[in-house]
Q: What sequence folds into this?
């Protein structure tokens, strides 16, 4: 399956929509957009994940990279994470470093 990612910047927030399978082939593009977002003064990075169907270890490293790259105090929110992807995040304990939200409760 293919992968697509888009970045939207608005005031002090950035959102990234992740669609498809985030694996080693897709990771460089995600890193590129994380670097772009980190160049702005942000309070929040929102990852829209309802259309993300697969998260490999390379994809998980992208999430860790985002956490490391953002300035201290930037909240990272994962919205609409599918159960299989959420399980991968939770098994690693990374869910303790981010906020995970249902789409219905997202702002």
A:
């Amino acid at each position: 399956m293919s992968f697509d990612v888009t970045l939207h910047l608005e005031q002090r927030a950035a959102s990234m929509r992740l669609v498809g399978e985030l694996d080693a082939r897709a990771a460089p593009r995600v890193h590129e957009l994380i670097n772009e977002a980190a160049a702005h003064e942000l309070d929040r990075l929102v990852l829209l994940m309802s259309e993300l169907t697969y998260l490999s270890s390379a994809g998980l490293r992208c999430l860790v990279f985002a956490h490391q790259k953002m300035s201290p105090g930037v909240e990272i929110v994962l919205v609409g994470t599918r159960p299989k992807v959420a399980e991968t995040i939770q098994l690693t304990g990374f869910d303790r470093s981010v906020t995970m939200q249902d789409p219905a409760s997202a702002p």
Observations:
- The chain has one domain: 3-102.
- Residues 57-69 form the longest helix (13 residues).
